[in-house]
Design brief:
Length: 304
């Protein structure tokens, strides 16, 4: 007959307290192999392995009912672990959203109204996020009905679907972006730029071509390691301004430069940085990097 272990011996072998072993037995997770003549519980060697499994599942956060289903083979171990992993990942995502709200509230001065608003913002669905972005752009171009196609493009480009497991950086970027979109001064700034952009004298096709060419040249300059504050960068900016002047029906580059200087708002650059972070795209790479380089070059030129 195989050697039987008393509950005390089983406790010493596994490091699990006797009280816990009795509890597992009473819950049906650890039925004894047999009883002694004095009705003491006796266990077999396989119970040592069973206890290791119970302990591992408990550490994974699986409840007693779920453990019982695994032990009875009502569900497979893999199924139980997948269910638990899904619950943990959902909880982690929720905690990340809470942490993002706390960080943003601290940055804003930790006022109660800020925390309530930011907590709400981090819980928005992707469709609700789209509505926030769409509402901002509709406010910016509400006086220019010809901008509808442009508006749709801007909403599509700047409303990424955040995954359920969004990183803290993505959540922080979204929180900062919403704060920016709700800022009346930013809305006014973008409206002023839109007024200039959607003027009846502007050749929209030429304007888009000027912007695309500027991004291309900026990308080539970045690839060569050109400093955005260098004379070469200044020449690129002047070429961009000349193309913008021509597209706006003006040959007066000085006037265009003055207007750009008056309308310049660094938050417009930050906007696209935040969008890149939300999309999980490294800012230094690709089109966002080109526009960031060009923005720095333009900023240097306008403030020089």
């Amino acid at each position: 007959m195989a050697k039987r272990l008393t509950i005390g011996e089983l406790s010493r072998r596994t490091g699990v307290p006797v009280k816990t072993l009795r509890f597992y037995s009473d819950e049906g997770l650890l039925p004894p192999a047999e009883r002694s003549q004095k009705n003491y519980r006796l266990y077999a060697e396989e119970h040592v392995v069973r206890i290791d499994l119970i302990r591992t599942l408990r550490e994974a956060g699986i409840g007693l009912e779920g453990i019982g289903e695994v032990l009875r083979r009502d569900v497979t171990l893999e199924e139980a672990l997948r269910l638990r992993l899904g619950a943990i990942e959902a909880h982690v995502a929720s905690l990340q959203r809470v942490a993002s709200a706390l960080r943003a509230a601290i940055r804003s001065g930790a006022r109660e109204e800020d925390l309530r608003r930011i907590s709400m913002v981090t819980r928005l669905s992707n469709e609700e996020r789209r509505q926030v972005v769409e509402g901002f752009f509709e406010e910016v171009v509400k006086d220019w009905p010809q901008s509808k196609q442009w508006l749709r493009g801007m909403v599509e480009a700047s409303t990424p679907d955040l995954p359920e497991d969004a990183t803290p950086a993505q959540l922080d970027a979204w929180t900062e972006l919403v704060t920016m979109l709700e800022d009346p001064s930013f809305i006014a700034s973008m409206r002023a730029q839109a007024s200039d952009f959607w003027s009846s004298s502007v050749d929209m096709s030429a304007m888009r071509e000027a912007q695309a060419e500027a991004a291309r040249v900026a990308g080539e300059a970045r690839a060569r390691g050109v400093d955005p504050t260098s004379p070469e960068a200044t020449a690129i900016v002047r070429g961009f301004i000349a193309a913008m002047a021509a597209a706006s029906g003006s040959e007066d580059e000085a006037a265009v430069t003055t207007r750009m200087r008056a309308l310049y708002d660094p938050r417009a650059e930050r906007y696209w940085e935040l969008v890149a972070i939300m999309k999980g795209q490294p800012i230094p790479d690709g089109p966002y990097g080109h526009w960031r380089w060009l923005g720095e070059a333009v900023r240097h030129h306008l403030t020089a």
